[in-house]
C-alpha cells in the first residue's frame, strides 16, 4: 500500500488487491456498489482506525509466510496438525464463503454470464459437498489411525483394517477434486474476469484461484508425504 492509499476509494483498493475484500467484509465495508468513497471515510463511518485497517489489508495481501519445514522428516503428528491448522481450517472457512459469493455473482450477472456461472456453480458445489465429507473422514478416521500407528498401535488392528484402505479412498477423492479444479479453470478461461466484472466478481475469481493453490499444497502434503509415510510405518 502507498502513502496515498488512505485517499483511494474502497472500490479501487478492492479492485487492485482482491485479498483486501475479506478485510472489508470482516468490518462490514461495502467494496462493490458502495465502494466509491475514500477508505478513510468508510472507516470513519464504521468507527474504525484507517491506519489499522490498511495494515490489516497489507497483511492479507502479503499472505502467509512460506512454510520451510521438512515434512519428510518431521514427526507425523506434527504434519497432521499442520494439515489441520493450515489447510482444513482454511477450507472450512472458505468453502461456504466462496459458495455464497458465487451465488451473489450469479444473481447479479446472470444476464450476461449466466450460462458460464451456472456451470461453474454446478462444478463448485459438487466439489464442496465432496470436500466437506473428505475433511470429515480424514479427521474422524484416517488421522486418528495414523496417530495411533505412530504411537505404536499394531498394524491391521483397526476397524477399517489396513491404513491403506482409507488412504485409497482419499486418493480417489483427491483425483476428483483435481478434476473439478481443472474444469473450473476451463469454464472461467483461467479465471480471467470479464470487462464488466464488478469487485465481487473479481473477488470470486481471486478466491477460487487461491483455493486451487491451497488444495494443490494440501493434496501434495498428503499424497506425496503423509500417505507414503503412514503406509511405510504400518
Question: Brief description of this entry?
Answer:
The protein has 234 residues and is mostly helical.
Number of helices: 7
Q: Compute the separation of the termini in Å.
A: 51 Å
Oligomer status: single chain
Query: Percent range for helical residues?
Result: over 70%
H-E string: HHHHHHH
| Class derived from helix and strand content | mainly alpha
Walk me through what this model shows.
The chain is mostly helical. The protein has two domains: 5-62, no CATH class; 76-233, no CATH class. It has helices at 10-16, 20-26, 39-46, 50-62, 76-150, 164-187, 199-233. Helix 5 (76-150) runs antiparallel to helix 6. The longest helix has 75 residues, at 76-150. The radius of gyration is 21 Å and the shape is globular. It starts with 9 loop residues before the first helix and ends with a helix.
What's the helix and strand layout?
Elements lengths: L9 H7 L3 H7 L12 H8 L3 H13 L13 H75 L13 H24 L11 H35 L1
Amino acid at each position: 500500500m502507498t502513502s496515498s492509499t488512505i485517499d483511494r476509494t474502497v472500490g479501487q483498493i478492492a479492485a487492485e488487491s482482491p485479498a483486501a475484500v475479506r478485510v472489508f467484509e470482516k468490518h462490514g465495508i461495502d467494496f462493490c456498489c458502495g465502494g466509491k468513497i475514500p477508505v478513510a471515510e468508510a472507516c470513519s463511518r464504521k468507527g474504525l482506525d484507517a491506519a489499522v485497517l490498511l495494515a490489516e489489508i497489507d497483511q492479507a495481501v502479503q499472505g502467509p509466510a512460506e512454510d520451510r519445514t521438512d515434512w519428510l522428516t518431521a514427526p507425523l503428528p506434527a504434519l497432521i496438525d499442520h494439515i489441520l491448522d493450515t489447510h482444513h481450517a482454511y477450507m472450512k472457512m472458505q468453502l461456504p464463503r466462496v459458495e455464497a459469493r458465487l451465488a451473489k455473482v450469479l444473481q447479479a450477472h446472470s444476464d450476461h454470464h449466466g450460462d458460464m456461472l451456472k456451470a461453474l456453480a454446478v462444478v463448485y458445489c459438487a466439489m464442496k459437498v465432496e470436500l466437506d465429507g473428505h475433511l470429515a473422514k480424514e479427521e474422524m478416521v484416517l488421522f486418528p489411525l495414523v496417530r495411533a500407528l505412530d504411537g505404536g498401535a499394531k498394524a491391521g488392528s483397526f476397524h477399517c483394517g489396513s491404513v491403506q484402505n482409507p488412504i485409497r479412498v482419499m486418493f480417489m477423492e483427491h483425483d476428483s477434486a483435481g478434476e473439478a479444479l481443472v474444469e473450473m479453470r476451463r469454464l472461467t478461461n483461467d479465471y480471467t474476469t470479464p470487462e464488466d466484472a464488478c469487485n465481487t466478481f473479481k473477488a470470486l475469481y481471486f478466491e477460487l484461484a487461491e483455493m486451487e493453490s491451497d488444495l494443490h499444497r494440501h493434496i501434495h502434503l498428503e499424497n506425496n508425504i503423509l500417505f507414503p509415510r503412514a503406509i511405510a510405518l504400518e
